[in-house]
Predict the structure.
Amino acid sequence: MIELDHVTKIYRMGTVELRALDNVSLRIDDGDLVAIMGPSGSGKTTLMNIVGCLDVPTDGRYLLDGIDVATLKDKELASIRNQKIGFVFQSFNLIPRTSALRNVELPLVYAGVRNRRSRARKALEVVGLADRAKHQPTELSGGQQQRVAIARALIIEPTVLLADEPTGNLDTASSAEIMKLLVELNNAGRTVVIITHEEDIAEFTKRVVRLRDGQIISDESRPARTPTIG
């Protein structure tokens, strides 16, 4: 469970003070499927960084599964990122001239985990790319590259999947495929938080939180639209 309690984030550059988040309170329950929306500069990326334990609030509290993240040391924060939170980015962040299978294995390589190959193959099966395991990123479409990135995020078996503009570099058909996959992962019990500025992408989620000038201006739950391919 994710809970932000009156969170403020201030960046200081000399005498200039930028209030990226301003007294934000937000709760995301286990199994939720949420879109965080807002224009450029609204604070949605800062919010994602805090939720993903990449940054900490200037004021207020962020609790992840009841633990105040501000009380954790760097090593403990890294452990949370490596075990509880899976990240998916707009630019895929795959290593070129390296197979899809090897790209998916990387988080386990860094963690020194054995039996990586079988887990990576299973993750690729989950995203429907078992037959592309030996292909390099340049041999895959944009949608397939994003599926590899999702498999890489899933290999640590996170409880929360954070997706930052996951369809931003994709065409309409590929975007629908990725959203269908994210919805399926959510239906299987995983919490999914999507940062997006696209209304048609937000329509696939169960809840839409809108930010402006570092504040939440609306938080709406509604029936999600089922992604269709083609």
Q: What stands out?
A: The beta strands are 2-13, 16-28, 33-37, 59-64, 67-68, 85-89, 160-164, 191-195, 207-212, 215-221. The CA atoms of residues 10 and 16 lie 10 Å apart. The mean pLDDT is 92. The first helix runs from residue 44 to 51.
